[in-house]
Amino acid sequence: MKLNLSILIAVVVAVVSYGLYQLSYEVQKLEKDLKQLNANIAGNQEAIRVLKAEWAYVNRPEKLQELATKHLPLLLVAPYQVAELDELPARAANPFVQEVTTIPLPRKKPRMRRGPASPPVSGPVHMATFKKASKERIVK
Amino acid sequence: MTDGPFAVSNINVTASSAAANRPAQTSIHLEGSAKETLEMGRNRLVIAAVLFFFCFVVLAGRLVGLAISGIGEDPVAAAEPEALPVAVEQPGSRSEIYDRNGVLLATTLDTYSLHADPTKIIDAEQAVRQLRTVLSDLGEATALAKLSSQRNFVWLKRHLTPGQQQQINNLGIPGLFFKKEEKRFYPLGQLAAHVIGYTDIDNNGIAGVEKSFDGQLSGKEGTTRKPLQLALDVRVQHALRDELTRFMSAFRAIGGAGMVMDIKTGEVIAMSSLPDFDPNRPKDFPKDNKFNKTTLGVYEMGSTFKTFTTAMALEFRSVSLRDGYDATNPIRIAGFRIRDDHPKKRWLSVPEIFMYSSNIGTAKMAEAIGPKRHKAFLRKLGLLDKPVIELPEVGAPILPPRWNRLETMTISYGHGLSVSPLQLSAAIGAIVNEGNYVNPTLLRRETGSEIEQKRVIREQVSTVVRRLMRLVVEKGTGKKAAAEGYLVGGKTGTAEKAVNGRYKRDALITSFVSAFPMHEPRYVVLAMLDEPKGNSSTFGFRGAGWTTAPIVSRLVSRIAPILGIAPVDEESPSIQKALHIPIYSREKKHETF
Fold it and tell me: Is B518 domain-assigned?
């Protein structure tokens, strides 16, 4: 009985201390991770700050103006060039589209009769057509 | 020992006879010193056992405590999760400054400074050679001398860029070290230098809003650290600085100043003073460049003051638009002669006096009001007191020592009273803003926030003065300020510079103060040039109408689309009607046959 109790206590002590040490190591590891993460966050914040400063620097109006005068044919905005959305005219119907049915009908399907000739496309709107890919493309 | 029953019986015997045996055992009686020794030994044992027991209990308790709570060396780690969201909002040790649209104007960056321990450097010459591949501006001789010295700490270069730091790190030279430091960085450079200001080497604000909001930006003295958002718009600011620079060089002026202000809210959208400096390296610029001409400089503003005189005369109902004064002959008073720059030599009506900028007419107008009321009126417009704005560099106006009839007459057309361009803009803003004075501010106002207003003139007078200002640009001295579609109205001002108490005839301060769009004014634009010289494009003239009015024209065309002011058709009947003003001229029409 006495022996059993001793053994039991010894086992309990061993288990508890193992558990406690394990817990302790785990906590230490987590704390290390946390430290690492905080350091990472601080590093990233610093990097973001540097990038923001750099963004402001490369976007300074002086530089943009220099680039715009170099690459764009833009002058001062004249009053007639300023308009509001409401002032835009409603989009006119495309004169080349006679029927609604002319748009995307699959024409090259087997056993399907050829539909009406495709409308002459010369305006700004290009209709979608169902053309077979050319052979060259397939070879490529 | 072979048979169990014996053992059992033996135990049994022992157990049963235990009570009987014990007296036999304890019957060994020790007497005297032997007994005492034994007792003492036992007592000592007990004491030792108790002591050890307590020690072990303490140890065990500590062990459990440590396992649960950690070693206790990391209280920071436990506290950090709470501190983290704050750290996200406020990186760095000094907060950022933004413009009204959130463009970064000033930030604090960690930089690395390179220092070395020469005793650990193996080959100084090679180290310098390698370093010079990254830092081309490193002086070879000085660096070599530093690295060969017998000290164990020398600075090589302060504030490296991250790229440079990486490259130097990659060189892998032993004996070089980096030290983390903080540096205030202004990405936009010279653009808004005078407003933002700059900091000293320890990141204390010493000029501009960096100084006036030092507490808020650094979090010193118990204030909570918070980023600052200014009312400036960098796009407008750039347009202003760009145009001022362009015309400054075109007219070889020695300086320029300008500002754009929202008259409804008092927000300063742009403020520039030229020549300026780069706040990233303020030491490289002369002191004159750091002088903010817009707020700290006070100047005799010239004819722009006629706006106030006319508004005053109309406000006190001393004249009506039909009335006028004879401007045929110069006024002689106390040894002075008041004459016109654009003499018409005839009777001029009030609109004509304003539009042709007649000194004689304006002086007579002010004389009719009298010095006392004149002074009170200008004080109401904030022209006689030091203005209040969030900058440490603010100049107080210079008032004449006496203010009598003569002074009233000269101040009526802008001589004898020096004010800053900031005061002038705010006062003009009040005149055109239905007579409500709004104090200028550099901070962005939230839309819908209440704005403190002070009535200075009647609304009807404001409407009339608006039309008069529009008339100046349409037909008077400021024709060159017209920006098609934006209905600019303004007043030219040409003043001789007072140097050592005398007026210098060849040195002018030309200014143009304007507002747009004139049918419902929203922004005040002021441009000023210091000592412009005429050129061939102005036929040698250097007055405000020739030198500063074009600045406003170009500036308004550039900034109006940015500020969301829609252009209007100037010829449309509604606009014509809104800005119509009868001139009541008595000019004799010459008949031609």
Answer: yes
